[in-house]
Design a protein that fits this description.
The complex is a heterodimer of chains A (about 325) and B (about 300). Chain A has about 325 residues and is mainly alpha-helical. Chain A has a single domain, classed as ABC transporter involved in vitamin B12 uptake, BtuC (Orthogonal Bundle), CATH 1.10.3470. Chain A contains 13 helices and two strands. Chain A has a two-stranded antiparallel sheet with strand order 1-2. The relative contact order of chain A is 0.20. Chain B is mostly helical and about 300 residues long. Chain B has helices at about 10-40, 45-65, 70-90, 100-120, 150-170, 170-180, 185-190, 195-215, 230-240, 245-265, 275-285; strands at about 5, 5-10, 140, 145. Chain B is globular, with a radius of gyration of 19 Å. Chain B starts with a strand and ends in a 10-residue tail after the last helix. Classes of the chains: A mainly alpha (about 325), B mainly alpha (about 300).
């Protein structure tokens, strides 16, 4: 899927990496400042939820925004990492940093397997295949012993991060989650704006041409897929520790739909769009939670409105207005 | 008691029947998806919701207008088909110039809206819908007991599928349709109104989903979420059969229903995932699906 904001990217020669523009650095500074100040004004657990989903959406955006592949099964990575982290922390007594790493590694491994099979197809086939894999992951989670079925893995210990930071303190946990989010965000940004990212864009714009230039398109796409799965896993593992819970919600296909919604609403292929989209969606869900089924209706309505009138998304529109890529 | 592979024949035939019933729904739904995909190039994510709407229209007809099952079989597909036509005319039509994935996202949004609205109104516990009196009871075939209604569902949906196949593959109208799938602008140049054909095709595919919904109402309950999970299985069925292949949808629909039924007998743990596993295997060997042509 091509967004207008990225159109000039095709003109940039592969391998020539443009420096990060000043307005993006400013925007990043504003985001960091806001996130550091936020827990003193807003309920931190809510913020942590938003941060986990923001990282999830950024990881998803890596695939759809820069490779043009719409995965409808990213919940598998979020959920698998959540189960991995929760199980290793609770049953094996892993400290939080190792639990998160283990969960992320589970998602990465799953990403290699699913990616190797899915990456051969494109467009709607790709969406369907990833969806099917996610359903397999869902039914596995439902039936496997260690996942606790319908109950999930509950009361996961948070422990002490790197044996120094006591994560039972909400504020400490918040800043650890913030650090994880920012680390993930910067790594994804780095990946996109590296020569590797340029090749990805070239493949998205014109795959046969990229292949004829000697790039192994399949391999690049697979690496992008695994990266996306890995960062989704990082988000899922962190989320499991924050909520002390790994449950079926995170593996269900509605979660895959939600991350599409966040990214689409924020702006496909934008740097900050997924973060903004995730914050909006999580906030909406928070306020609409007591209205039950209306959450679904509102989500659906946002999808319809975005697709029909608002395809650049919030950040994409802002960037378009000011002629800057955000 | 006779057994096959250590399984009582009674259970085996029972699951075969359930498999054929599920297969009927898979076949009708994936047929509609295939017809729509062939001409519009979109995967209709609203399909499950439209199947559910069909069942609900039958329920409304019975409880508000006193019109029974047979009327519902006739009216529900038309009513839901018309809502599909409206949907296509007002929204989907605007997306044909864009990446096809936007069509997927739009119909996904509509599915969420429709299912959310129905769930808000009717909860998620399901409403009973009585079986038509003419099809109550069943007959003993000697090796198993066959409820009449289930036999009717299998026979009727098979007939609908074959009729659709005949119209598309063997009539002049179907020839136009297939030509428009190949090259819409050329067909339009011959004076055929392709946009109208696209609209009616979408309406027809949606109507098929609604018809399946009416058939399902007496077996499963009328439930706002009855199509939500089913449609994901049907997506897999369509991919296995080959997107856009008419015969492929019908054959794989029935076959996979039966495979799923037998999995329930021999290895119940895998019954939910067997279709997805088959999908992965098929794609490894034939990326375009069993009956699809390589693109």
């Amino acid at each position: 899927m091509t967004t207008a904001a990225d159109a000039p990217a095709a003109a940039v020669g592969i391998g020539a990496v443009t420096p990060v523009p000043a307005h993006q650095i400013v925007a990043f500074g504003v985001m960091v400042a806001a996130l550091v100040a936020a827990p003193f004004f807003v309920y931190p657990v809510f913020l942590m939820k938003a941060l986990c989903f923001a990282l999830f959406a950024c990881a998803f955006n890596l695939l759809i925004g820069y490779v043009g592949l719409l995965s409808f099964g990213h919940a598998a990575f979020l959920g698998a990492a959540g189960y991995g982290a929760a199980h290793s922390a609770k049953a094996w007594g892993f400290p939080p940093e190792l639990a998160i790493l283990f969960g992320t590694a589970v998602a990465a491994g799953l990403g290699v397997v699913i990616g190797a099979l899915a990456i051969r197809s494109k467009g709607i086939y790709f969406a369907n295949i990833t969806l099917a894999f996610a359903q397999m992951a869902y039914f596995f989670s439902l039936q496997a012993k260690f996942t606790g079925g319908e109950d999930g893995i509950q009361s996961v210990p948070r422990g002490t991060f790197l044996s120094v930071l006591d994560l039972r303190q909400t504020l400490t946990l918040y800043f650890v989650v913030l650090a994880i989010f920012l680390g993930g965000f910067l790594l994804i940004h780095r990946a996109i704006h590296s020569p590797f990212g340029q090749v990805l864009k070239a493949i998205r714009e014109n795959e046969p041409r990229a292949i004829s230039l000697g790039y192994r398109a399949e391999r690049y796409k697979l690496v992008a897929f695994v990266l996306s799965a890995t960062f989704s896993g990082l988000a899922g593992a962190t989320k499991a520790l924050v909520f002390q819970l790994a449950s079926l919600t995170d593996v269900h296909w509605t979660m895959s739909g939600e991350v599409v919604l966040m990214t689409l609403l924020g702006g496909l292929g934008t740097v900050f769009g997924p973060v903004v989209g995730a914050v909006i969606v999580v906030t909406l869900e928070n306020y609409l939670a007591q209205l039950g089924a209306w959450v679904t209706v509102v989500q659906g309505a946002i999808f319809v409105i975005c697709v029909l009138t608002f395809r650049r998304g919030v950040i994409g529109e802002v960037g378009h207005r000011f002629k800057k890529s955000l | 008691m006779t057994t096959i592979f250590g399984v009582p024949t009674q259970a085996l035939f029972g699951q075969l029947l359930i498999g054929l019933i599920n297969g009927s729904f898979y076949a009708m739904l994936s047929l509609g998806l295939s017809v729509i995909f062939g001409l519009l190039n979109i995967i209709n994510f609203t399909h499950g919701a439209q199947y559910m709407m069909g069942a609900f229209v039958a329920y409304f007809l019975l409880n508000w207008a006193g019109l029974g099952y047979w009327w519902a079989l006739l009216i529900a597909p038309v009513v839901v088909g018309i809502t599909g036509v409206v949907l296509e005319r007002t929204t989907l039509k605007r997306l044909y110039q864009l990446d096809h994935l936007y069509g997927l996202l739009l119909t996904f949004g509509f599915a969420l809206i429709i299912q959310g609205l129905f769930r808000h109104e009717y909860g998620s516990s399901g409403l009973p819908y009585a079986m038509p009196a003419q099809l109550g009871g069943g007959r003993n075939l000697g090796f198993m007991f066959l409820p009449n209604y289930r036999a009717w569902v299998i026979v009727f949906s098979l007939a609908v599928c074959l009729a659709t196949w005949y119209v598309i593959e063997r009539t002049r109208l179907g020839a136009y349709l297939r030509a428009a799938t190949e090259n819409p602008s050329l067909v339009q140049a011959f004076g055929i109104n392709v946009p109208r054909m696209i609209t009616l095709t979408y309406g027809f595919g949606v109507g098929l989903a609604a018809l399946a919904g009416v058939l399902a109402a007496p077996i499963y309950q009328v439930n706002p979420l009855m199509g939500a999970d089913l449609i994901i299985v049907v997506f897999a069925v369509v991919v296995i059969g080959g997107l856009g292949s008419i015969l492929g949808s019908i054959v794989t629909g029935f076959a996979l229903g039966v495979v799923e039924g037998f999995t329930k007998v021999f290895y119940p743990e895998a019954s939910n995932t067997v279709i997805f596993v088959i999908m992965v295997l098929v794609l490894l060997v034939r990326p375009a699906g069993l009956f699809g042509r390589a693109t």
